[in-house]
Design a protein that fits this description.
The structure holds two protein chains of two kinds.
Chain A (H helix, E strand, L loop, with lengths): L3 H30 L2 E3 L2 E3 L5 H8 L1 H34 L5 H13 L2 H12 L4 H8 L14 H26 L2 H9 L4 H29 L3 H7 L6 H9 L5 H29 L3
Antiparallel strand pairs in A: 1-2
Chain B lengths: L10 H24 L17 H7 L2 H34 L5 H13 L2 H14 L6 H11 L1 H14 L2 H9 L4 H12 L1 H17 L4 H4 L6 H10 L4 H32 L1
Helix pairs in contact in B: 1-13, 2-13, 3-6, 3-7, 3-10, 3-12, 4-7, 7-10, 8-9, 10-13
The chains are: A mainly alpha, B mainly alpha.
Chain lengths: 281, 266
């Protein structure tokens, strides 16, 4: 139905643009990770030293593990908050469902910075939470360890990614054919059994999609640590950022970025396969 | 849509859901409340209602300069991302070419990858190409990254479109060009507006990619970011409140349009 010219006209510009402004930049990142810096100058000398430095330096490996721990915590907490919420909306919210759904969607797209800043003002030693605790005479001294800690990073990122995790889970729950659930109940399964044997397995693709999203985006976050993390909340992306800034070692920074990229893409690949296996037709 | 067990209430679950909503909204409400607090961003309870911080904000020239920069970048990004996203959606929907599966994934990468990866890649590209960092590089970054959003939304719109109208137009002798303008585009109107609003909001708020591409002129999020490092006043609460209000407004319109587009197609 569409002529060859039509097809060429619609395909060529986006292909060229994406090739030039997206594929080439990502490829440059790869290339940089095999280059070197000498006397403060970038030299195109192919080598594996950046990756060797990375693996042998305990600081980088340590921060990478901390980052994974933080990302895993964020994922877990987002699931613990997002799944029951999605379940409630899908199965028990009744006529208020549409409104409640919109209420979850809105913060999803609302400024990362605004939400992060809110936590900074709440958790600070002269912040809102400390003021509140002293007002109620629960504490008499400001609690200093709330802000600038890995805890604050996990809290802020959980707040940001809970709606992200909610979304695919809710979509998966909405797609479960209700007769399946009713059949399980009619055949005498307890609500608990119905949930664990029918609903949870069928919502697994959504759960996986949400969990991957939260994990991957937390893994590469550098703003939350800068905003509320302090030195003990430093994450791997902060190291990258400093290597590209003051430390001026782009190749080493690029090699860490490539590692983040590889972890991210392989996780996405794995969950995609798992989702296919879990989804039913 | 009946509940799993319509007669069974789930009071505990309802309370839990309420708590999650509180967790999501309370920080933002606290932020808004303290934008009216004379005594600063902390302490409890907020006392002395004042509009001084808003007055200070409206007189703050660098902030409004940054708003203007953000508006320029966002408007440009909407134009760029919509144009290329529409073409990409048409290509994915109608054309076969080598590497199509790869292209589909590549376009979506900026949406899935952490912002720092895309931001740094584009920074290296800009330096490699000898470009000065400025609002132009920020615009190229936003526009390119947000093609992903435009492509997804418009591809969904195309999938729901009634093909017979286009066939009829072509059969009746209209050129493909005319068919595109008179049939395809009008059918996609709602999807185009919805995608545009979303891209606009995301570009106005973007910080991770912008961080690496910014030159001397700040966008609004980066202006705020810079001030956070110098110590905070409720003026930042005030500007955050306004950003929140505008985003909520735009997102609500976007959501309405999208549901309307979905209903129209159903």
């Amino acid at each position: 139905m569409y002529s060859r010219t039509y097809k060429a006209i619609v395909s060529a510009p986006p292909l060229l643009w994406v090739g030039f402004f997206l594929l080439l930049p990502y490829a440059l990142m790869f290339a940089h990770s095999f280059w070197a810096v000498r006397d403060g100058m970038l030299v195109n000398e192919w080598n594996l030293r950046n990756y060797q430095t990375l693996l042998s330096n305990p600081v980088y490996v340590g921060v990478l593990f901390r980052t994974m721990r933080i990302a895993a915590s964020v994922t877990l907490f987002s699931l613990l908050l997002g799944y029951p919420l999605a379940y409630y909306l899908s199965f028990h919210a009744g006529p208020r469902k549409e409104l409640l759904y919109q209420l979850v969607i809105v913060p999803l797209w609302v400024s990362y910075l605004v939400r992060g800043y809110a936590w900074k003002t709440i958790l600070g030693s002269d912040g809102v939470l400390n003021g509140f605790l002293q007002y109620l005479h629960i504490s008499h001294e400001p609690v200093g360890y709330l802000l600038y800690s890995p805890f604050a990073v996990v809290l802020m990122l959980t707040h940001i990614y809970t709606p992200f995790v909610f979304l695919p889970i809710y979509a998966a729950l909405e797609h479960i054919p209700r007769p399946l659930v009713e059949a399980s109940q009619d055949l005498g399964a307890s609500p608990r059994a119905t949930f664990f044997r029918v609903i949870l397995p069928l919502s697994m693709p959504g759960l996986l999609a949400g969990a991957t999203f939260a994990f991957v985006l937390s893994l590469g976050d550098f703003l939350a640590p800068l905003l509320v993390g302090g030195p003990s909340g430093t994450m791997i992306a902060n190291i990258v950022q400093s290597l590209f800034g003051a430390a001026y070692d782009w190749p080493l920074g690029a090699s860490i970025s490539v590692c983040i990229l590889i972890i991210t893409v392989s996780l996405l690949f794995m969950t995609e396969r798992l989702e296919k296996r879990w989804s039913f037709k | 849509m009946s509940a799993a067990n319509p007669t069974r209430r789930a009071p505990l679950l309802a309370v839990y859901a309420g708590l999650v909503f509180a967790f999501v909204y309370l920080p933002i409400l606290v932020l808004i409340a303290y934008s009216f607090n004379r005594d600063g961003v902390g302490g409890f309870p907020p006392r002395h209602l004042t509009f001084d911080w808003y007055r200070q904000l409206f007189a703050d020239a660098p902030i409004w300069n940054a708003v203007l920069n953000s508006l320029i970048v966002a408007a440009g990004s909407v134009g760029l991302a919509l144009t290329l996203g529409l073409l990409a959606a048409l290509a994915l929907d109608r054309a076969e070419f080598p590497g199509k599966a790869l292209f589909r994934r590549l376009v979506l990468l900026p949406l899935i990858l952490p912002g720092i990866i895309t931001g740094l890649s584009l920074l290296m590209f800009a330096v490699f190409a000898g470009m000065q960092l400025s609002l132009l590089t920020v615009f190229l970054g936003h526009g390119t990254a947000l093609i992903s959003v435009a492509t997804t939304e418009l591809f969904a719109g195309l999938q729901k479109m009634d093909r017979k109208q286009e066939e009829a137009s072509l059969d009746l002798g209209a050129t493909p060009w005319r068919t595109f303008w008179r049939v395809t585009l009008p059918n996609l109107k709602l999807s185009l507006i919805a995608a545009g609003l979303l891209i606009f909001t995301l570009s106005m708020d973007e910080i991770a990619v912008t961080f690496f591409l910014i030159g001397r002129d700040n966008t609004l999020p980066l202006e705020i970011w810079g001030r956070l490092r110098r110590g905070i006043t409720p003026e930042i609460n005030a500007v955050s409140t306004l950003i929140f209000a505008v985003s909520v407004g735009l997102i609500t319109v976007w959501y309405r349009l999208r549901t309307r587009a979905e209903r129209a197609a159903a």
